[in-house]
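Data deposition worksheet. Section B asks for the primary sequence of the deposited chain exactly as it was used as input, without tags or linkers unless they were present during the calculation. Section C holds the resulting structure in token form. Section D is free text for depositor observations; keep each observation to a single sentence. Incomplete worksheets are returned to the depositor.
Section A, Depositor: J.P.
Section B:
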Amino acid sequence: MKLTKTTIAILLASLFGIRGIKAQSIQEGVNHLYAERNKSAKETFDKLVATNPNNLEAVYWLGQTYIAMEDVKSARDLYSKTLQANGNAPIILVGMGHVNLIDGKKDEARQMFETAINLSTGKKGADVSILNAIGRANVDAKEGDVAYALDKLKLAAQKDPKNADVFLNLGDAYRKAHEGGLAVTNYDLATSANPNMARAIYRKGMIYYTQKNWELFTDILNKAIAADPKFAPAYYDLYYYNLQRLPPDFSAAQNYATKFTASTDPDPQNDYLVAQTCFAKKDYDCAINTAKAIVSKAGPQTKPRVYRLLAYSHVGKGDTAGAKQYIDEYFAKAKEEEIIPKDYVLRGQIGGNDDMVFESYVKAAQMDSVYDSKTKTLQEGVDYFKNKNNKIKEAEMRMVQSANKKTPNLSDPFFTGLAFYQGADYRRADSMFKLYIASFPDSLYGHYYDARANLALDTTLSVEPYLTNMINGFKKTLDIAQTNKTKFKTQAVASSQFLAAIYNNTKKNRDSAVYFLTKGLEFDPENPALKEFMNQLQKGGKPTKGATGNTPGKPTGATKPSAIKSSAVKNKSMAVAKT
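Section C:
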């Protein structure tokens, strides 16, 4: 049969129409996946693969949907089966590499990614879709290499500067690398290429959520909804925001919860919003029972946030032992972007190990891009160890706190040194007190406690450089104490005792010992310990141990460290201010 031009035109139109339906169907599935309607995405890709098992793009996205549903085994089986029939399919190699990353097989994954690049490279260079999928895999998997992802995605963006999906993944990669500004830039580039890409708008909004910029956060998420009224993640996070704001807006939260449920697939995990509302109302039993019912129904597909809620709810009831299994499950399953600073702190406190708690506070502060909340987190860490009377960890936390201040507080080394001193880490106490003295040479407390730290390091009153440090510190204390004999009486009396003991016992200089006792009696003429010590020296006998104060313990009249715990030298005078 001879084909006329009209017949050919009709056939071509039909062919392009079929291709358009195929592309639209894949994009439809991707849209479902990006909106977290995973069941709808799976149904779309299942139909495409059933119609054409050699539709490798649909196979790839079906595997990605399995991964999103926490069903890595099905993704692995799908990609493995497809590779048996299409061993040189680059996009499926990338999918399998993604699975290997999730399984912790980083070397095998990298080999598959590089093979996929080589197989797909033509005269115009590497294939953009392969570079994009490799970037996506390394961003999504915990074991992914974000630097490698950025390298491949940047190359893809150069080759196709109008590919919205590439810029979306590039934004996610920068977010994983904790580069919020660059993440926002690339999300904007994604929406410039595709103004209706709700996921890119939403991801940009979540950057401002982490920064606690609530006005921008809510405005941008509403823009995501305007771009796609069925974009469920935006409804969920607006629900959560209204639930956690002060005061909570339960009515607005319920409104967003209703819209979320209407926009997502039917799923027992939608009851999470019920559990979350119970938690917000401090009905912890309701939260726990609802969350456990979700786990029972969803099984391995249970989302990490459910385990987090169970952990927080058990802690809310005072049951840290019951919370441990859930916080461990949460950290095992959650992606880094899902974890918030408070989660690290909670894990540390549940673990009960002070080293873990310390690292948790440090990690939480590192994650927080908002200075005020970072500062608050570190102060909570200081207070936590102070209340537990773990002076060493309190001091170490103070060091981290000081290092993270925009403007250094020159009095910080004193309080850090004092905590080290109270925790019997005298070497680090000495170092901190010397830093403080360098900034405040006229502060009595710096010299006095540095001398006490050196005394604790050498109770024999004979080892250098501790002996010289003691003598200089106690002498300086006596000199500064002359400015206010009432305020500094206790430090002056203790310093005179120590100096008298050093000069009498170590220097064998009785006259100097008498001199320093005389200086001490100027501050407290009726002090029984000083008078007894003086009496012994004048009689030519040896003073008793209690009179000399020849230990780092509690010499008569000495100030306990806790007596000035809430004071710091405000300036280079002897004024004392609240920290």
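Section D:
The chain has 30 helices and two strands.
Residues 1-23, 544-579 have pLDDT under 50 and may be disordered.
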